[in-house]
Design a protein that fits this description.
CATH superfamily of the largest domain: P-loop containing nucleotide triphosphate hydrolases
Helix content: 25-40%
Largest sheet: 7 strands, parallel
CATH architecture of the largest domain: 3-Layer(aba) Sandwich
CATH topology of the largest domain: Rossmann fold
Shape: globular
Number of strands: 22
Radius of gyration: 25 Å
Structural class: alpha/beta
Length: 556
């Protein structure tokens, strides 16, 4: 770049990174920042990022050289990079790898925590909250723990700010050979895409102790399920797949049958209607955490420990419920693969995923896959809709929580929905909302089919199938369609309300319309102008803006 003032990035001493959106180097710099930083705010002209210990640990786990990060900051920064920023980033980055958990040479039932930094070692030795973990190994010096405490220690240490590199290896599980087909059951040729194979290789790591656990981050529609199948074939052992709902269970089953040489009788389903354990078993998070009463034990969690799994797959790992986290601490000797479109968790427990499932192993910007034709181009538009005079008065006198619902259920949104339906006549359209009463009222008024959590499973499947075949081209859905619903021809999403400022939900909903197609898909978000819903909408967009999407703002 010809002059300092032309550079797009301003780096401040509080580790805030400010990126100029209109700059010619914006895209290149944005993709660079995604390697090690997190987007915090994304208004029209300046996007704000921050670096955190976790973002740098993931960069280290992905083997992004620290010199590449510092050189990039120097290249893009408009002013000199504050020295304290580099010092802090280096300290966080180099923390990953300083604590290594490995098998103890002198005792088969113990693991040893090897700490390369004497300063950190002293802090850990004198941390009273960690005293419960250390086991006596006779006169041999060192920090030793029972094998059963492997996950508990990793979880406790990351909460103390110390990520553990786990090199203890894995149990192979019961052998079950499985291979992928070259031609699927529909008669179409089938092969892993290059990035899918790369993701599998980086996860498996040639069977070495450095691989075998972690998270693969790819957009919806890019074939995360296929990566799961490829990993199952690579490891070829008994596998437990945890899905989001029974629809997703069926989709995993269908893909296994269609694209692998597996006998249908070797696939088990552990759900409310069927409870069978087979070499490949598929269950749901809800099933694992189900109990008869609030105080009843979670009996189904024993599925983790009572069977000789060689691989456990966590679909949509970013929604992992707390009891499954706790169960996962006990199975650190099993290979664990997390699949997700976003590592963002609304509860802020991304570090739990890092410690207990594993670090990010693979990530590709959504726009990169779009440019290669693997996912559809998407045009994102936010419509700001004014409240009616009556609703405006009600809104003004409501408390904070009520304000959001009043704004979300803005009656004037129906007029805009009708206009959008007319503009996209003949296309496959999903209308999605947070509040059941809102979407039921809309569906009834417009005489459209609807799916909510109350819809019977058979009726859901029938409506989804009719939508896939084009017998119906508009479907109203509740948040049950946020996850793992395979509707490949959907090309328009109209979001009439959402879950507050959930970035996670925004990413999942856009993902419903990203399957490759000949024309661009459209993602419309309807928010009430000048309300808390508009504010939450800005937060929802953060993740997608980070991935390269820009929202057009229009007024109705």
């Amino acid at each position: 770049m010809s002059s300092q003032l032309q550079k797009p990035l301003i780096i401040q001493s509080d580790r805030t990174l400010m990126l100029e959106v209109g700059h010619p180097g914006y895209v290149e710099c944005r993709d660079f920042l995604s390697l090690f930083a997190e987007l915090v705010k994304s208004p029209e002209f300046i996007h704000t990022y921050r670096v955190t210990p976790l973002s740098l640990w993931n960069a280290a786990a992905l083997d992004v050289p620290f010199e590449e990060i510092t050189n990039g900051l120097e290249e893009f920064s408009r002013y000199s990079v504050p020295s304290n920023v580099i010092v802090d980033m280096r300290e966080w980055y180099e923390t990953y790898g300083k604590l290594v958990l490995q098998k103890a040479e002198a005792a088969e039932d113990l693991l040893e925590l090897v700490v390369a930094d004497s300063r950190i070692l002293e802090r850990i030795r004198n941390n009273e909250s960690l005293d419960e973990f250390w086991a006596d190994n006779g006169s041999i010096p060192g920090l030793f723990i029972p094998q059963a405490r492997r996950g508990d220690l990793k979880h406790a240490l990351i909460k103390a700010g110390y990520p553990v590199k786990d090199l203890c290896g894995y149990l192979e599980g019961e052998r079950f050979d499985i291979t992928l087909r070259d031609i699927d059951l529909d008669g179409d040729s089938f092969a892993l895409r290059d990035y899918q194979q790369e993701a599998i290789d980086l996860f498996y790591c040639g069977g070495e102790k450095t691989g075998g656990s972690g998270v693969i981050v790819l957009p919806c529609g890019s074939g995360k399920t296929i990566i799961g199948l490829g990993t199952i074939a690579q490891i070829s052992s008994y596998t437990l797949i945890i899905a989001t709902n029974t629809v997703s269970v069926q989709q995993w089953r269908d893909e296994l049958i269609s694209k692998t040489h597996i006998n249908e009788t070797d696939i088990g389903e552990y759900t409310g209607r069927i409870k069978e354990i087979k070499p490949i078993t598929i269950t749901t998070y809800q099933m694992l955490t189900h109990r008869k009463t609030k105080d009843s034990p979670l009996h189904n969690l024993k599925i983790f420990t009572e069977h000789n799994w060689g691989l456990i797959i966590y679909d949509e790992v970013h929604i992992l419920p707390a009891p499954v986290f706790r169960a996962t601490t006990a199975i650190q000797a099993r290979r664990r693969l997390g699949l997700t479109a976003t590592l963002v968790r609304e509860d802020g427990k991304e570090d739990d995923v890092f410690a207990l499932i594993g670090p990010k192993r693979y990530d590709v910007p959504w726009k990169t896959l779009e440019s290669r034709g693997y996912i559809a181009e998407a045009i994102c538009t936010e419509y700001r809709v004014p409240l009616s005079s009556k609703e405006e008065l009600t809104y003004a006198h409501a408390d904070k929580r009520a304000k959001f619902r009043i704004a979300a259920e803005n009656e004037r949104k129906k007029e805009l929905v009708c206009e959008l339906l007319e503009n996209h006549a003949g296309e496959s359209i999903l209308i999605i909302g947070q509040f059941i009463s809102q979407i039921e009222k809309l569906a009834k008024s417009l005489e459209l089919p609807i799916i909510t959590g109350k819809t019977k499973q058979d009726d859901r499947e029938k409506l989804y199938d009719q939508f896939r075949k084009g017998n119906i081209n508009t479907l109203v859905v509740s948040k049950v369609a946020n996850f793992s619903v395979d509707l490949p021809d959907a090309s328009v999403m109209i979001q009439i309300s959402g879950t507050y400022g959930s970035r996670q939900e925004e990413a999942q909903r856009l993902g419903r319309i990203l399957r490759p197609k000949e024309h661009a898909s459209h993602f419309y978000t309807l928010v009430s102008k000048g309300t808390v819903e508009q504010t939450f909408g800005s937060n929802r967009q953060l993740f997608l803006v980070e991935q390269g999407y820009r929202y057009q703002i229009r007024y109705f």
